[in-house]
Amino acid sequence: MISAKRATSVFLCVLLSTLPVLGDPQAAGQHAGQIEAMIPAASRNDKPAKVKDELQWNDLLKTTKSGRVRAGLSDGSILSVGSDSQLRVVQHDAASQQTSLEMNYGKLRSQVEKITKQGGKFEVKTPNAVIGAIGTDFYVGFASNKTTVICYQGKVAVTPLGKVQVLQNSGQANSATNSITVSEGQMVVISSVIPPGGFQTSDTPPAVQQGTQLATDVPTNPPAGVRPGEVGHTGRWVFIGSAVAVGVAAGVLGTRSTGACSPNVAGRKCP
Q1: Strand partners, 124
Q2: Shortest CA distance to 103 belongs to which of 39, 60, 73?
Q3: CA atoms within 13 A on the CB side of 135
Q4: Helix (H) or strand (E) holding 124
Q5: What pTM does this model have?
Q6: Cβ-proximal residues to 60 (8 Å cutoff; 6+ apart), any chain
Q7: Residue 77, domain extent
């Protein structure tokens, strides 16, 4: 009888050990948000994505040269991914306000809900920088080993990674965190080559700001007859604006001044 009871207990223990633990998000899968709009298409985990698809932790979003996608995170933040981009939602915990994104290449606009929790964070990581924000509207682009950060509203902290260093950053460098503060209307470019004056912020030229906003704009209902990669009448500016952004960003590296954020496009309000 004792042996039978022991056998039953062992069987139940083994069976229960194979079941997911109730309340364990790691076992049950972790909700991050939802895809809200696309033009004309995008992929999620290398499969065709659809509007209203749920996003989970570690989901990988990709767009081609004619695609863009907008996703809403569960805390109300908005991610607008431009063309030729790859973004991984590594983590998004709305309750503790812990968000971590990775962008290997491409263009991303993040409209971030204000972080109020102690220890909360919202970070975007590129191959050579980490961008941290607290209730901010900002753009991150990565191409040709350069990270371009433009702050439309609020402030972001940009921390170079790897061999790059922050040197003599005109009073905006934080020596304790080795980061650069980029304020509203400013931009900074991080590359593997350190400029003589160190990485410094500069005013964002209006054409660059508008170009980056248009390049990541994803309307919910595109007008009929819009060609892939276009957004209504403003579509012709998307790729022009992106090219201007890259060219001007490279030219202003090493300069610094202050400026004001120009109005957002497409009628979208900053958080």
Answers
A1: 101, 131
A2: 60
A3: 5
A4: strand 121-126
A5: 0.71
A6: 44, 45, 46, 86, 87, 88
A7: 16-252
40, 70, 222, 231, 267 from 234: Cα distances, Å: 16, 18, 11, 6, 13
Radius of gyration (Cα) for the chain, nearest Å? Answer: 22
CB atoms within 10 A of CB 30: 17
- In the structure encoding, which two tokens stand for residue 151, read together? 């702050």
Q: How many CB atoms lie within 10 A of CB 56?
A: 15
Question: 92-98 long-range contacts, Cβ below 8 Å, gap at least 24?
Answer: 92/30, 92/32, 92/33, 92/55, 92/57, 93/30, 96/120, 97/121, 97/122
Tens digit of each residue's pLDDT, the chain (271 residues): 445 555 555 454 544 444 444 434 443 459 999 999 999 889 999 999 999 999 999 999 999 998 999 999 999 999 999 999 999 999 999 999 999 999 999 999 999 999 999 999 999 999 999 999 988 999 999 998 899 999 999 999 999 887 654 433 333 555 545 788 999 999 999 887 777 777 788 899 899 899 999 999 988 776 554 444 344 333 333 333 444 344 444 444 333 333 333 333 333 444 3
- Structurally, how many domains does the chain consist of? 1
* CATH number for 66: 2.60.120.1440
Instruction: Evaluate whether residue 210 is within a structural domain.
Output: yes
